[in-house]
Write a structure and sequence with these properties.
Elements (H helix, E strand, L loop, with lengths): L7 H13 L1 H18 L4 H18 L2 H12 L1 H5 L1 H4 L4 H16 L6 H12 L1
Amino acid sequence: KSREKWTESQNIRAGIVFQEYPDLEVAYNLSDKLRKIYNQNITKSVAMLKLAHWFKDVEESGFKSFSILKNTITNHYNDILNYFDERSTNASAESFNAKIKNFRMQLRGVRDKAFFLFRLSKIFA
């Protein structure tokens, strides 16, 4: 949840927690900065610049979990940046794929592929 959406009591509690555990504040700020990159209506070139700054912040923080995330983003950099062109994701395709896997699991495997595809098209089409 971004700081702007915190209630007064959440703000007070966060202040106490961040004072006692400064690493939590650094981790929160890193995750919030990444969230804001995606929530802002920015162009691809601006997103590239902001991600580069975020990468630098991650390296300076020394958090292993954020370094792993940074490496994942780096490995899929162009695909991830395509989000900023049309602001669309492949979430619907992933959801449909999960439904197919669940359907296949309920049937405990598929022997007749043609019949499976027929049933799939009748149920989900």
